[in-house]
Amino acid sequence: MKKGFSLLVILLLISCAVKQKGAEGKDATDRTSSGEITITANDIKKSMEYLASDELGGRATGTEGIEKAAIFIENYFKDNNIQPYFETYRDSFNIEEIIGFNIVGLIEGNDPKLKKEFVILGGHYDHIGKGKEVNGDTIANGANDDASGTIAAMEFGKYFAKSKTNKRSVLITLYSAEEIGLKGSAHLAERLKNKGMDAYTMINFEMIGVPRTADKSMAYISGYNRSNLVSILNQYAGEKVLGLFPKAEQFQLFFRSDNFPFYKAFNMPAHAISTFDFTNFDYYHHVDDEPDKMDYTHMVSFINKMIPALEGMINGPTKEVVLTENE
User: Fold this and answer.
1) Closest to 253 (Cα-Cα) out of 277, 279, 227, 282
2) Does 221 reside within a domain?
3) C-alpha to C-alpha distance for 105 and 78, rounded to whole angstroms
4) What's the CATH code of the domain at 287?
5) How is residue 213 annotated by DSSP?
6) For the stretch 257-276, what's the b/e string if a residue is b when 16 or more beta carbons lie within 10 angstroms of its beta carbon?
């Protein structure tokens, strides 16, 4: 009798816990989870509504607005136990009279040998500041470009810092001065190379705030034929998350985002991943690139699908992602 009663109590407690979780007001499509780690559309939207707010003035490098963005990201890293890679989170550099700074966080690997190898995840948190006036608005908030990629990298950092599942070390690298010639990523790539870092691969998240049409892959990479990254990540994702965007080569996208300085410095696989394909969003470098135009369900889905893909690559026993000769 006592044993049956105890079993009944346990079952009731489990049932209550499930109901409590479901009562938080979030649809299943709004959240993903791995154990106790959750990613919610609400959290992503909250970050977006600050980073792409008028208060930050378009986040141009060297402005008060990008300083506020940097502080926000640093506090996010602290709150989620993402450690500074350097003495502080900031990797500072000069562009004539302008002082810029990348924000760099570390999640150390848990394997004694593999933790000496680094996977670099990133996005640029700067934007152009002002744009052509529309209905009295001149602030180019840069929600899709690239607060969306910045937030994705931050969420990946939170996941690995909390799950502690990464065998290799992971750097979360958020760049300024992308919009004025990839200056921030170029500075950091050279600095890490001069430190003798054993960098495995670099993935840059660039404009992932809006979905592609249903007949296309969820996302694509720049430099599709320069490595086998797509096949490796899709293998670990268990589905075709990444595909080919034929116009990426025509538009020279491989050379136009923060992956390129790492490819140049390390001669390693380094790509940008995007869901913006020039047909699904009309507000590139436009004052209407605003938080209310982002698809947060899509962003959660993308991040959720990328987690097992990244985790598999980060924990592979060998460096499976390699450059290919077909460039």
Assistant:
1) 277
2) yes
3) 9
4) 3.40.630.10
5) P
6) bbbbbbbbbbebbbbbbbbb
Taken in order 57, 59, 61, 67, the sign of the CA dihedral is: positive
Cα dihedral 108, 109, 111, 115 sign: negative
Amino acid present at 254: F
Whether residue 239 lies inside any domain: the answer is yes
On whether residue 248 sits in a domain, the answer given is yes
The token pair at 166 is 């990464």
Containing domain of residue 182, as a range?
31-315
Q: At CA 112, angle to CA 109 and CA 115, rounded to 5?
A: 35
Q: Is the dihedral of CA 57, 209, 157, 21 positive or negative?
A: positive
106-161 pLDDT, tens digit per residue, is: 999 999 999 999 999 999 999 999 999 999 999 999 999 999 999 999 999 999 99
pTM: 0.90
321 in a domain, yes or no? no
In this structure, which amino acid lies at residue 280? N
11, 12, 14, 22, 35 from 18: Cα distances, Å: 11, 10, 6, 6, 14
Q: Output the CA torsion sign for 297, 56, 155, 226.
A: positive
Q: HSE, CB side, 13 Å, CA atoms: give it for residue 141.
A: 22
Contacts of 221 (CB under 8 A, 6+ apart): 229, 230, 242, 248, 271, 272, 273, 274
| DSSP string covering 305-325 | HHHHHHHHHHH-SS----B-S
How many whole angstroms separate alpha carbon 103 and alpha carbon 185?
11
According to DSSP, residue 207 is labeled -
The string over 42-61, giving b where at least 16 C-beta atoms fall within 10 Å of a residue's C-beta and e elsewhere, is ebbbebbbebbbeebbbbbb
- 15, with CB counted inside 10 A (0-12, 13-18, 19+), is exposed
Q: How many domains does the chain have?
A: 1
pLDDT, tens digit, for every residue of 286-299?
999 999 999 999 99
